[in-house]
Amino acid sequence: MIAAFAALPENVTACATDLVACSSIELSAHRWDEIDALANLLPSGTRVYVNHLPRHTLVDTLGALEQLHAAGFEPVPHLAARRIASRDELRGFLERAVHGAGVRKVLAIGGDEPRPRGPWPDSVALVRDGVLERCGVREVGIAGYPEGHAAIPRAVLEQAMRTKLDAAAAQGLGAYIVTQFCFAPTRIVEYCAELAAHVPEVPVYVGLAGPTAPATLLRFAQHCGVSASLRALRAQGMGIARLVTHTDPGEQLVAVARYCLARSACNVVGTHVFSFGGAAKTAEWMNRAIAEPSPAA
Questions:
Q1: Who contacts 176 (Cβ-Cβ below 8 Å, separation ≥6)?
Q2: How far is CA 23 from CA 39, 65, 204, 214, in A?
Q3: Pairing, β 204-209 against β 268-274
Q4: What is the CATH classification number for the domain harbouring 95?
Q5: Where are the alpha helices (DSSP H) in the chain?
Q6: Tell me, what DSSP letter sits at residue 52?
Q7: Mean pLDDT across the stretch 204-219?
Q8: For residue 74, which of 277, 289, 270, 285 has the smallest C-alpha distance?
Q9: What is the model's pLDDT at position 183?
Q10: How many CB atoms lie within 10 A of CB 114?
Q11: N or C: which end of the chain has fewer CB within 10 A?
C-alpha cells in the first residue's frame, strides 16, 4: 500500500492513481536488464525515457530504445544539446531511432557541459533548428523547473520555454512540459498554477522523485539543482535518515492530485517519476499506486 494514500477521500485516491497511470519513467541507457521487469509492472505504451549521460553517445542509447519498443513501451530519448557533436551525429541517430525504435517524442535538454561539443549551445537552439521535425520527430518535451535553475535566471528560463514552444508550434511539432522533481509540495503546485496561467494549452507532466536510498537521493538532488527544497527540509530538522520517508513520491503525488481536483482549468495530465538508476524499483512503486484500491473498495 502507498502510505500517503491512507485515509484519503476516494476522489483524491482516484485522481492520484489516474496521474500515475499516465506517468512516464526513466531508464539508464545501459540498464537493458531492467526492461523485462518494467514489462511485468507497467502498462503497455508507458513512456520510458532513456537518458543521455556525459559518458554516453547518442548511439549508445539506441539498443535500449529498440528493446523498449519491442517490449511494447513508447521509448523517448533525452537529447542533451550541448553533448551532441554534430548535425550528422543527430541526424543519423534520429533516423535510426525513428525508423528502428518507433521514436516519435524526444526530451530536449541543455546538458551540463562547460562548452558545447557541437553546433547547439542550448535546447532552444536545438528546437529552433528544425532538425527534429525533418527527421520524423512529432513531439518535443521541454523541461520545467519549479525551483528555478542554479545557472540560469528565472526570467531567462521563462523566455526560453516560450521560445521553444513557439518554435515547436511553427514546425507543427506537439509540445509538452516535464518538470524537474522537487521536495516541496507547495512549490510544486505553485509552479503548476503558474504554468496553467501562462501556457494553459500545454500538457504538463509533474516530476516526482522516485523511491531510492538517502545518499543517492541527496546526490541527485544536489546535481539537479533542487537544493533549495532540501535546505528547507533540513531547516525543519529533517535528518538525512528520514528524508526518503518524508519525500516518498506519494506525498508529492497527493498534493498534485488535490491541486488538480481544486482547479477547473488544469493542464497537468500525468507525472514523470525519476528513477535515479533504479527503474525496476520505481516501476514497483508505480505499479502499487496504479493498483491502489479506493477507500470504498
A1: 139, 141, 142, 202, 203, 204, 205, 269
A2: 14, 18, 11, 23
A3: parallel
A4: 3.20.20.220
A5: 10-21, 35-41, 62-70, 87-101, 123-129, 131-134, 154-170, 185-198, 214-224, 227-235, 240-246, 249-262, 279-291
A6: -
A7: 75
A8: 270
A9: 76
A10: 5
A11: C
**How crowded is residue 67: how many other Cβ atoms within 10 Å of its Cβ?**
19
257: cell is 492530485
Kindly report the pTM of this predicted structure.
Answer: 0.90
The number of distinct structural domains making up the chain is 1
19-37 tens-digit pLDDT: 999 999 999 998 889 999 9
Torsion of CA 147, 148, 150, 154, to 10 degrees: -150
For residue 43, the model assigns a pLDDT of 95
Using alpha carbons only, what angle is made at residue 242 by residues 236 and 246, rounded to the nearest 5 degrees? 70
Amino acid at the residue 96? R
pLDDT digits (tens, 9 = 90+) for 130-170: 999 999 999 999 999 998 877 788 899 999 999 999 999 99
Please state, in angstroms and as integers, the Cα–Cα distance from residue 6 to each residue in 12, 186, 210, 244, 265, following that order: 11, 20, 19, 18, 27
Which pLDDT score, from 0 to 100, does residue 151 have? 75
d(CA 194, CA 262): 15
- Please check whether residue 297 lies inside any domain of the structure: no
pLDDT in tens, 257-271: 999 999 988 999 999
Task: Indicate whether 296 belongs to any domain.
Answer: no
Q: Would you say residue 242 has pLDDT above 70? A: no
Identity of the amino acid at 276: F
Sign of the torsion formed by the C-alpha atoms of 194, 196, 202 and 206: positive
Query: Domain containing 87: what range?
Result: 3-291
Neighbours of 30 (CB within 10 A): 16
Categorize the per-residue pLDDT at 224 as very low, low, confident or very high, splitting at 50, 70 and 90. Answer: very low
